[in-house]
Amino acid sequence: MLRDDFDLRLTNELIETYLKIAYGIKPGCWLDAEKGLLQENMLYPKLKQMINDGNINDAEDILYEYANPINPDILKVGLFFYYDLNRMADAELEAADFTRDEVKEGVQELLKIYDQENFGTIFR
């Protein structure tokens, strides 16, 4: 239980820190940044709806179809996606056939696609 809480917080810290450094999004401005992303990006609202519908695995598959180093906006979308997942209760994730470990691994894989995997090692 304690380890799970630690991993949850660590994943949140990784995402928040990366968004702050790479995109200048400060924790107090999180909701404004998310609202902007919902308006300016077609993929993020779709992923959020899929999360709400319990289709997390399909949403993740779609995210990775778009993830490409030549499109850095998708990294931001992906980090918000995994942050949303990480805020869900374990029971909600399990009901959608997803785990907290998959959230952590997804963040690491996304950073790897964008050649940022070394950033994630700081938080291991």
Description:
This protein is mainly α and 124 residues long. The protein is 75% helix and 0% strand. It has eight helices and no strands. The radius of gyration is 14 Å and the shape is globular. The longest helix is centred in the N-terminal third of the chain and has 22 residues, at 2-23. Helix 1 packs antiparallel against helix 5 (73-86) and helix 3 packs parallel to helix 5 (73-86). The chain has helices at 2-23, 30-40, 43-52, 56-66, 73-86, 90-95, 100-113, 117-121.
Which whole number gives the mean pLDDT? 84
The percent of residues in helical segments reads over 70%
Largest sheet, in brief, is: none
Q: Specify the overall morphology.
A: globular
User: What structural category arises from helix and sheet content?
Assistant: mainly alpha
What's the tally of helices?
8
Number of DSSP strands? 0
Q: Provide the β-strand percentage band.
A: under 5%
Give the low-confidence spans. none
Radius of gyration: 14 Å
Element-level helix/strand string? HHHHHHHH
Cα(first) to Cα(last) distance is 18 Å
What are its keywords?
124 residues; mainly alpha
What's this entry about, in short?
With 124 residues, the chain is mainly alpha-helical. Helices cover 75% and strands 0% of the residues.
Would you spell out the secondary-structure blueprint of this structure?
Layout: H1 2-23, H2 30-40, H3 43-52, H4 56-66, H5 73-86, H6 90-95, H7 100-113, H8 117-121
